[in-house]
User: What shape does this take?
Amino acid sequence: MKEEMLYLTEEWDKTFPKSDQVDHKKVTFHNRYGITLAADMYVPKNASGKFSAIAVAGPFGAVKEQAAGLYAQELAERGFLTIAFDPSFIGESGGQPRYVASPDINTEDFCAAVDFLSVQDNVDPDRIGILGICGWGGMALNAAAIDTRIKATVASTMYDMSRVTANGYFDSMDKDARQKQREALNAQRTADYKSGTYALAGGVADELPSDAPFFLKDYFDYYKTPRGYHARSLNSNGGWNVTSALSFMNMPILSYAEEIESAVMIVHGEKAHSCYFSRDAYSKLKGDNKQLLIIPNAVHTDLYDRKDIIPFDEIESFFVKYIHG
Assistant: This one.
C-alpha cells in the first residue's frame, strides 16, 4: 500500500477560529482504492491514554476547513480524538480526475478513516464513531450499514444524494424526466471524452435572482459569504463534475439502512428544505439505539456552523453513551 504525496497547507485557513483547548495537525491515510486522503486531526490538550475517536466529513461539496472541521474541533474540546477529512478527489485529498463524487468511493472514505483511526496508538479501536454532514450524512449511514467497527453514527442535516439525484428535490421528477437527465449526462460523457476535460456543474451562483428558492438563498448565505466561503470548496466555486450524477441515479445508498445494528442519531432542522430526507431515513432504522432529533426553527445550513443551534450537548451525550463509556 502506497500513499500519494499531497501538498498540505500548514497555515490555519479554516472558516472558524482555532481552539486553544486542542492540539491540531495534518494527517493522511489511504482508502482501498489507493486514494490518499488528507485530514485535520484534533486531540484534547493535556490528555493521555486511549481516546474514543470520531471521523467527520461533509457537507457535500464542502471541504474539511468548513463545517466538518468545526464539528471535529468542538468534539475534540469535549474529549474525543477527531479527524475531519476531505473525501476522495476534492480539497487537499488525492485522486484523479478531480471533483468526482461516487456513492461507493465516498462511503469507502468513511471506512478508510476507521482503518486509520483503528491503528493509532492513542485510539481505542473498539470506540470509534463517525459523523456525516449534509450529503455525507447519507454516506455515513451507508458506511454504518457495512462497517461493523463503527459503534455510533451521527447524520446532521442529512441529504440522501441518491434520492435527490434520481428524483429531484421533493421527489418532483418522474421516469420521463429521469430518462431525459440520463440522456443529457451521457451526451456530456461523450463531449468530455472528446475534449479531454470534464465539464463542471458549477457551485452556488455568484448572484441569485430575487425569485430564487429559499434553499438556494440558504446555501448562498453560507458558501458565498465570509461566513463559509473557502477557496477549495466546490460549492463556493466551480462545483462537481457534471457526470458525477450518473452513479448516484443508479445506486441507492440507503438500501440496507434497516440492517444497521449500531447506534444512530439523525439531527435535522425543523424548517430545513431537506428535513424529509432525515425523517424518511429514520423510518428505515430498527432498534432502540436509534434517535431522531429535530431542531425547532432551524434551516439546513444552521447545522453547518451555528454553534448556538447545533445540539453539541446531545451529540456528545450520544457518543459518550455508545462509544465513550
Remarks:
- The chain has ten helices and eight strands.
